[in-house]
Amino acid sequence: MLRFLCKPHIITARNLTVQTLSRSMAGQAPQKMEDYFKDKKIIVTGSCAGMGEKITERLLDLGAFVYAVVEKEEGAAKALPRTKQIFCDVSNWEDTYKKMYDIGPVHGLVNNAGVAVIESFFDVTENGWNKTLNINARALVRISQAVAKNMIDAGIKGSIVNISSTISTRAIPDHTTYCASKGAVNQITRTMAIELGKYGVRTNNVNPTVVLTRMGKIAWSDPNKSEPIMRRIPLGRFAETDDIANAVIFMLSDYSTMVNGTSLVVDGGFLAG
Fold it and tell me: How far is CA 269 from CA 205, 229, 251, in A?
């Protein structure tokens, strides 16, 4: 009987809570991308070409300040307004941490720097293996350690976006080391999401299919190589750099505040079949 008498009160309290939450949520208009990124500080590695260059360009268009991490000063493009170039060989464990930490607190990090050494399984070399894993996976960890430490110390609930690949989960010939490195990126991202999430720092992947950067167009120009992949993409095309930039911008922004430890696949349906 007492249980029955208490029920209406419980239901009433719950209804009031739901109504309060509903009113609160209804009054919160989504922030515009232009408003969110204005004066935000973002680090982009591998920013001088391809996807990194496009991501940097889009962030600048949205009003962000970008720390553009490039490997060598020689031949590097002149720094754009609202950017600062950081010259860093990300395969150097100690130097990388120091240079990233010395940047100070930022709101976002895009781990885009990467290499692809094309070797078949029986032709994998020690140099190819070390270079690929060091840059694609180990450097990502070292950079993120420094950046996340600064975010946490400054109380910034930032976002880290790691560029992975669809072939982190579906292998293709002649990419043994690359597939291994991007598989590692997926697991690193998940671990970071678990450990950094309690501080409000989110970590996610963006996993593209073939991207038509300048080098991508050259690498996949042979129909014998590209057609088997293209046939598995329901949308019938490879990704453009803008496709990847769109996904990265979403993951960096407040539009994805409840997204953590996941992979946003940008592949036109390649992995669906």
Answer: 17, 11, 20
178 is catalytic: yes
CA–CA gap between residue 255 and residue 271 (Å, rounded)? 25
Please state, in angstroms and rounded to a whole number, the distance separating the CA atoms of residues 174 and 117. 9
Catalytic residue among 67, 97, 101, 178: 178
Q: How would DSSP label each residue in 166-216?
A: GGGTS--TTBHHHHHHHHHHHHHHHHHHHHHHTTT-EEEEEEESSB--HHH
DSSP state of 203: E
Residue entry with tokens 């408003």: 35
User: From residue 230, how far is each of 48, 117, 118, 165, 221 by CA, in Å?
Assistant: 27, 22, 19, 16, 12
The 3-state DSSP class for residue 160 equals: strand
- The SS3 assignment for 158 reads coil
17: pLDDT strictly greater than 90? no
Looking at every residue in the chain, the average pLDDT score rounds to: 89
pLDDT reported for residue 1: 45
DSSP character at residue 253: S
User: What are residue 240's phi and psi, to 5 degrees?
Assistant: -100, 160
Contacts of 249 (CB under 8 A, 6+ apart): 33, 37, 55, 58, 59, 62
Please indicate whether residue 3 or residue 250 has the higher confidence score (pLDDT): 250
- 127: tokens are 């140099």
Count of C-beta atoms within a 10 Å radius of residue 190: 17
Give the C-alpha separation, 60 to 66, whole Å: 7
Considering only CA atoms, which of 154, 58, 45, 60 is closest in space to residue 106? 154
Please enumerate in sequence order all residues whose Cβ is within 8 A of that of 168, keeping only pairs 6 or more positions apart, or say none.
179, 182, 183, 185, 186, 207
CA angle 54, 64, 86 (to 5 degrees): 70
Predicted confidence at residue 75, as pLDDT, reads 58
